[in-house]
Amino acid sequence: MVTTAVYVRISSDVTGEGLGVGRQEADCRAFADRHGWEVGQVYSDNDASAYSGKPRPGYEQLLKDIETGTVRTLVAWHTDRLHRSPKELERFIDLAERTGLRVETVKAGRLDLASASGRAMARTLGAWARFESEHKSDRIRRKLAENAAAGRPHGGMRPYGWEPDKRTIRESEAAVIREAYQRVLAGEPIRALVRDFNSRGLSNASGGEWKHTTLLGVLRNARQAGLRIHHGEVGGDADWAGIVPPETWRAVERVLSDPSRVTTPGRAGRLNLLSGIATCAVCGAPLRVGHSRNVKAYRCVAGAHVSRTRDPLERFITQVVVERLGRPDAARLLVPEDDGGAREAAELAAERVRQRLDDAAVSFAAGRLTTRQLEVITGTLRPELAALEAAAAPPPDRAAVLGALVGAGDVAAVWERTPPDSQRAVVSLLMEIRVGRGRRGPGFDPFGITIEWK
């Protein structure tokens, strides 16, 4: 059956309601009615950009139906709804010539693709549509750079913890964010927080359940500390107040980026107490659990330097930790060590580097710096800033990590009830463990194991 078809498309549908394509369809149907044509099929690509080059299912199906002769007349709202790519347009022109397709638009009139003048007109309109897309893209990039330099928020959906204006804190969600930061600093993994938040019926910004990547993205977002981000880089202060202090965000960022947190449970769901924490006494590389003669053992990841059976080694470290936490002076472990002002000095130096980056961003937005100059400046200063921020980050909250272990009547019993992730946090906080080769012989021998208290 030969029919008249309608094609509609809109690049961005933020609400998901399809109002833009709905209005296009109504105009196209009214146009077809005025010409006495019956619309047999509507092909729609909602929230799909022709400029991006990504597949458009509705458009591809339309091409197939034109090829088979199902569609002989096509009505679109404007030519730029069909194409914004010269390459795509040439493919369409070739198809229209071969099939005798008639193309009508509500706003630009008829496109006679069977004639040279009509094809030239189509190409001219396509070239201007492409220019407008590229010009719009340039304007958006420039606007984003200006927003970043001024500390203003960009577009997009509402961030978790904030009202739609992206400046006003939504206190009910901000409380969840603060809780998450505190629990991460206390050693809890993201997956444990996700399970807990979902069990409590707490939804994410879009109203759905929390996922690991979603919560990780929220916690690593510098906007929570009142800092702005551009092209994935943390800049200076934003024009909104933070939910947590910058030093808290940086401390959590340091925890979340620590390679020793890679502790994926095995098939039995067991976390290894020392994986990524204990190091090889020969080369300094971390130890991880593998099989050695069908026995679970901690092995050096850099080579066959060390292999110690897992369970006896973990029992030995556990005994050392429990014994230390059971001493009368265990409360001293809650007091952070005096660094002699080193962290404060590092923070002041880091602030000076951030100001230099801010000045460079402002100069770029004002056109005083080229893109290449900005890249050189940021490429030089970013590593320096990262090192200073690591030195300035506050140490873990010892009271939150050690929790009920200090001062407990039966430390061993409390340790057994402590979640594995929290046990790892305690070990990592209290000691540095270097594991060397043991002496040959039956049973476990602590020879070669060195512990330094932090």
SSE topology:
Blueprint: E1 3-10, H1 19-34, E2 39-46, H2 57-68, E3 71-76, H3 79-82, H4 86-99, E4 102-105, E5 109-111, H5 116-150, H6 171-185, H7 190-199, H8 212-220, E6 227-230, E7 233-237, H9 246-256, E8 279-280, E9 287-292, E10 295-300, E11 307-309, H10 310-325, H11 342-365, H12 371-392, H13 398-402, H14 411-417, H15 420-430, E12 431-435, E13 449-453
Helix pairs in contact: 4-5, 5-11, 11-12
Named at the architecture level, the CATH assignment of the largest domain is 3-Layer(aba) Sandwich
Question: Kindly, what is the distance between the CA atoms of the first and last residues, rounded to a whole number of angstroms?
Answer: 81 Å
Helix residue percentage:
40-55%
What is the fold named in CATH at topology level of the largest domain?
A: Rossmann fold
Mean pLDDT: 82
The CATH H-level superfamily of the largest domain is Resolvase, N-terminal catalytic domain
**What value does the Rg take, in angstroms?**
31 Å
Q: Uncertain runs with pLDDT below 50, 5 residues or more?
A: 13-18
Strand order of the largest sheet: 2-1-3-4-5
The helix-strand sequence is EHEHEHHEEHHHHEEHEEEEHHHHHHEE
* CATH C-level name of the largest domain: Alpha Beta
How much strand content do the residues show? Answer: 5-15%
Q: Name the shape in a single word.
A: elongated
Give me the number of helical elements.
Answer: 15
Strand-pairing-aware structural class: alpha/beta
How many structural domains can be distinguished in the coordinates? 4
